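Shall we go through a protein fold together, starting from nothing but its sequence? Label the sequence line and the structure token line clearly, so we can match residues to local backbone shapes. Would you write everything just below, so we can both look at the same thing?
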Amino acid sequence: MKKQELSFLSADGIHPIAWTLWEPEDGKVRGVVQLVHGVAEYIDRYHDFACFLTAHGLAVAGDDHLGHGRTATDAAELGWFAEKDGWKRIVEDEKRLRDILRARYPTVPMVLFGHSMGSFMARTCLMRWPDDFTCCVLSGTGHQSAVVCRFGKLLAGLEIRRHGSQYRSALLQKIAFGSYLKRIKDPVGPNDWICTDPAVVRQYDADPKCGFTATAGLMYDMMDGLSIIGDRAGLAKMDKAAPVLFIAGEEDPVGAYGKGVRHVADMFRKAGMADVTVKLYPAMRHEVLNERGKDTVWEDVLDWIDQKI
């Protein structure tokens, strides 16, 4: 496996976006997987999964979004996208990375893989640029109603007006994530909902670039993104022939313990998507790629990609 750390200019015209490229050791690439990470994490957390894919002839690439990982210039920027139009900018950065990858690998299939907030970004990409990817894997996705999105934007907007977009609101954090431990007996910490493997959770807890309280601006932007991906007119713009795989843990609160995942899959089918598959993993939580039993998840994803490309 060959690994490079690179950068490109963000759609905000200010920040260099840090991105990582993993390639097969022999240089023979039969497909490209573009990874889109979630909120309060960064792309190098996917290193082991990327190495697994490169061992099977796939190049893998992913960036650290604005306000995340190596892209964040300092601790104050962690969890903040932009003063305005944050969702638009982070999604356009995925488009920029996609075009860089297409120029580098002009003839091979391209796979989009989004996790959690990254799955919301990936769904936005499917609506805005329906011809860009051969297929898509959505991990740990979920659904929020239009009413919830409007309320969330209203509340975040009030916090921004009071304190500014970079304010870290304990209220917004509690509303967004406070219920995620309700089905976990005797949780050790606030992030136990991400995985059943305590080693993964403790590593996440100890990492200053993970699990931070997001800014009011990011919360507003994410509610904006959730509004966009729930729009029927936008869903109708997706490439109806593009295969989509949903993967999630049955104990993942983001996907309402499977109910929200199945709901989004039904939304895709109602929009005319012809090839939609849902794979729910019993006893697994949010980060199925890091779970006990992750080898099965990795193999399932690879097998599905092999079938579609």
In short: The longest strand covers residues 2-9.
